Amino acid sequence: LLLAGLATRTRQLESVTMKLGQGGPFIGGLRRTISRFSAMRGYYSPEVKHPRMEQEFKGMQPHFPCLDRLKGSGPVSALQGAYGETISGYKLFNSSHPFHFKHGGVLPQIQLAYEDWGELNAEKSNAIILHTGLSASSHAKSHNDNPSPGWWEKFIGPGKALDTNKFYVVCANVIGGCYGSSGPSHLNPSTGKEYAMTFPLVSVEDMVCAQFLLMDRLGIGTVHAVVGSSLGGMQSLMSAAIHPTRVGRVVSVSACARMHPTSIAFRYVQRRILMSDPNWRDGRYYGISYPRMGMHLARLAAVTPVCEWPVTHPPLVLS
Fold this sequence. Notes:
The protein has helices at about 1-20, 25-40, 55, 65-70, 75-80, 205-220, 230-240, 260-275, 290-305; strands at about 90-95, 100, 105, 110-115, 125-130, 155, 160-165, 170, 225-230, 250-255. A six-stranded mixed beta sheet has the order 1-4-8-5-9-10. It contains nine helices and ten strands. The longest helix is centred in the first third of the chain and has 19 residues, at about 1-20. It is of the alpha/beta class.
């Protein structure tokens, strides 16, 4: 472009000066300069190549596996992993008596889904209650009625931490859990619609009280141990606190007796994330939509502080 421009301007200037009779040395010098630049064209090509963007541009190829897995998947299979298989294979305990919740609210009756492994001895003294985490079902280990691997598959069985050759292990889905136990997705008999947000507020104490009603039904007075991790660990501590004479041992893994203010703040953020999903619909999404992305992001927020905690792996063996 530079050479072409110089040549054009020189020809114009030469034409003007010739007409005026003032050609002479200036035009001659300019011609020699252009000639020297022209001799270098083999190295400095004056041709400008305009790239074709559709051929030469190469950018990122966006790929988001975490989102791809959510497309077209149901709420349970997308977010709960093995819990999605817990649609059958559990037993049901039904209590026909009104259940009073700690923070107010009464259900005329409740049901708990539970699964068990091992044999209860004649004295009924070898029972272990396995408490679940926040989002877990009663399916802690596979069995004949549900052969899918459970969420504590490697810890329950003959010779394992919860040795089924010695102990009778019972795991119940917590009240409010909706994996067979009474919860917001169940129908309110007085309205014929899902409880949704009208379901009473559930506390850890409520979860434990419901499970000990199950122990009463099974004829178990004192349990050999209560075991749980995370929310399950809180339940095991609560069990000993409200039933000190009925609990022989307590195993609480990665849990606490009281929530730290930071944890309470994170739970608030989780709820806000979930309720910001357009599919939340004030909790009445049953049969219409599911706040899948809100739930997914809320769970990501839940595990974020956990990543900062030191992790140790002490052996867990009950005797």
